[in-house]
């Protein structure tokens, strides 16, 4: 049996961490949404043996147990004592190590797909809790729709759909290691964004207010190491974005535009500065 799951990229409209837990894991307070730049994950179950195989069309990805999609299949196979193997083929469209959650989204796609193919009957919340064992962004990616995300990443409250918006993504040439940025957090020095106001703006469908209160507490940390992030933000604003911000731990910068014509102008302009630029929409 086989199926294909879509694994969309995520962006962080708001990202804050108020403290970290005793085991070192961050407590998150985030507003996330998914956009229509997506990987496609083909999942085929095999009855002859229990091997898990991963292949992708990207030269940048491990194909063994380091691949988050492999880890998702292994987690379900062992937890539910499934006697079947899996072939996973990933068509990679989301840039790797970009702050767009591509690996987490692939893992979430495998959780959703195998839940169906192996008839496990797990709810989204149960899949999200399992996904937390793989990465803190996996629970959100199981849902893959605009949500308020708290806890270590497992407390997901879906939100109403966003007001009409276009998103320009620009990924500078650097790749960012998430752990190396998280290790740099000094909680006393952080400038926290106002996530409550952002939630209100989303609920009120008020894109102007959304743009005014968006914020990513980690942006200064990554931008200090990679100044091109600040330059890309400035360029986006110059070309007419309503707001521009780094996603996740970076380095991808996204510009939010309430008008398609403006988004097209930002997209065209950014192509002169950056090789990897995408014009996308938030998923409904
Ligand atoms: P995060 O912020 O969740 O770490 P990211 O968007 O910055 O995510 P990813 O593209 O998910 O970055 O990649 C992070 C790391 O995960 C990379 O070092 C990559 O090699 C590894 N990885 C493992 N499996 C995958 C996968 N299926 N797709 C992308 N990266 C993967």
Features:
alpha+beta, globular, Ribosomal Protein S5, domain 2, binds adenosine-5'-triphosphate, 284 residues, 2 domains, Alpha-Beta Plaits, four-stranded antiparallel sheet, seven-stranded mixed sheet, 10 helices
Your description of this structure?
The protein is an alpha+beta fold. The chain has two domains: 2-158, Ribosomal Protein S5, domain 2, CATH 3.30.230.10; 166-280, GHMP kinase, C-terminal domain (Alpha-Beta Plaits, 2-Layer Sandwich), CATH 3.30.70. The chain contains ten helices and eleven strands. It has helices at residues 68-79, 102-117, 124-131, 138-143, 178-182, 195-203, 207-213, 219-225, 228-239, 260-270; strands at residues 2-16, 28-46, 52-56, 85-91, 147-151, 155-158, 166-171, 215-216, 243-246, 253-257, 276-280. The strands form two sheets. Strands 1, 2, 3, 4, 5, 6 and 8 form a seven-stranded mixed sheet that branches. The chain is globular, with a radius of gyration of 19 Å. The mean pLDDT is 96. Adenosine-5'-triphosphate binds next to helix 1 and helix 2.
């Amino acid at each position: 049996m086989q199926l294909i799951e879509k694994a969309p990229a995520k962006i962080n409209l708001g990202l804050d961490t108020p403290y970290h837990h005793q085991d070192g894991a961050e407590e998150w307070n985030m507003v996330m949404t998914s956009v229509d730049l997506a990987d496609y994950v083909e999942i085929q179950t095999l009855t002859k043996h229990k091997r898990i195989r991963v292949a992708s069309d990207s030269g940048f990805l491990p194909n063994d147990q380091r691949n988050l999609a492999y880890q998702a299949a292994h987690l379900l196979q062992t937890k539910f004592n499934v006697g079947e193997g899996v072939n996973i083929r990933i068509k990679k469209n989301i840039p790797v190590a970009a702050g767009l959650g591509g690996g987490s989204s692939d893992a979430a796609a495998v959780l959703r797909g195998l839940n169906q193919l192996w008839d496990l009957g797990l709810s989204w919340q149960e899949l999200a809790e399992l996904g937390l064992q793989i990465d803190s962004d996996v629970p959100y990616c199981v849902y893959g729709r605009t949500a308020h995300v708290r806890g270590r990443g497992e407390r997901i409250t879906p939100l109403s759909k966003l007001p009409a918006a276009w998103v320009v993504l620009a990924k500078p040439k650097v790749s960012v290691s998430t752990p190396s940025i998280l290790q740099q957090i000094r909680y006393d020095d952080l400038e926290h964004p106002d996530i409550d106001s952002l939630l209100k703006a989303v609920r009120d469908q008020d894109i102007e207010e959304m743009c005014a209160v968006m914020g990513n507490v980690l942006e200064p940390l990554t931008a200090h190491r990679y100044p091109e992030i600040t330059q890309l933000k400035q360029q986006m604003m110059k070309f007419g974005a309503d707001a521009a911000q780094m996603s996740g731990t970076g380095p991808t910068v996204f510009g939010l535009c309430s008008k398609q014509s403006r988004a097209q102008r930002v997209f065209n302009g950014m192509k002169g500065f950056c090789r990897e630029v995408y014009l996308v929409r938030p998923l409904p």
